[in-house]
Amino acid sequence: MRVLHFFRTYYPESYGGIEQAICQLCTASQASGIDSQVLTLSPNIHPPELIINNHKVFRAQLDLEIASTGFSLSVLQKFRELAADADIIHYHFPWPFMDAIHFAARINKPTVVTYHSDIVRQWFLLQLYRPLMLRFLASVDRIVASSPNYLETSSVLERFRDKVHVIPYGIDKASYPTPGEDLLAKWQQRIGGKFFLFVGMLRYYKGLHILLDAAQGTDYPIVIMGAGPIEDELKKHALRNRLDNVIFLGALPDEDKIALLHLCHAIVFPSHLRSEAFGISLLEGAMYGKPMISSEIGTGTSFVNVHGETGLVVPPGDALAFRQAMNFLWNNAEAAQEMGARASARYQKLFTADKMAASHASLYRELLDRK
Predict the structure, then answer these.
(1) Fold of 2-172+352-370
(2) Tens digit of pLDDT for each residue in 297-344?
(3) Residue range 175-350, CATH number
(4) What letter would DSSP give residue 9?
(5) ∠ CA 206-211-212 to the nearest 5 degrees?
């Protein structure tokens, strides 16, 4: 079975949560006899084809980008060529230009769309795009939501509930590097043996200003790993608040990230807007048996982190509540350890890449049988 995935960005230019979910799915699906291919846009298409984790990636020239929507003059022809050889077309939403390509190509193949997130920030543009979006979602055979929480809180998914399948994201622990003892010792010496850790892109919806406000009046180390468009703004915020205990590390290689995940006391994840649809970094924390603190925003973050079971969930934007949650995990080591153990067990039960791939393989076969 050959599956063509279509999304606006992909490795090696972009390493966001959606890209990671697609890569994990393509890689794990090989065990089910699925040959996955990815078509994406890139500002640099040399080479135009890559092999990543044993699946082929095709890159069309990115000609223009407006409001995070990439456009390409050449991608329609490439999409037609690849779709003609595919058994299943798997779209990844949101990307308005993709909807137009879907209709322009007129490919009569089974179609799946993973609904990664509502469109939250570009409200005005959404009103213009909405007729095309609804027509596109109505036209595909199945829609995949990454959590029951998101299905219950998305007004868009509610319209198409009869065709929505919930398949949580999954990650494969074996695909992550194992940090050496020297690397672990280096980070332990630099930061100490007990600290809170945030991992992710530094974007507006990550709520890191809330974390910085929550850090006031505390003295435990809070490590922020990642880069992004609001990095300078956050560093100025920390300086204004005289937060000597907040450490910005910037972007780091995977081995360093895993070393920090091994060493940290707990994961902090203050995302406060629905743009955060799931939280792969939370899932990584659970995979390594760490208790978590997150906010209740009606998305998959509260499917990964269950309040009182795997960590603590606080109201969004509430710095005081976030600080109180950090104080609890810092001062109650036994409770934190128990929550971390339950987080690891929940990962094994619900969120492995093999489970994600097997569920998609079953969905693909159902569509092929029906067609």
Answers:
(1) Rossmann fold (3.40.50)
(2) 999 999 999 999 999 999 999 999 999 999 999 999 999 999 999 999
(3) 3.40.50.2000
(4) -
(5) 120
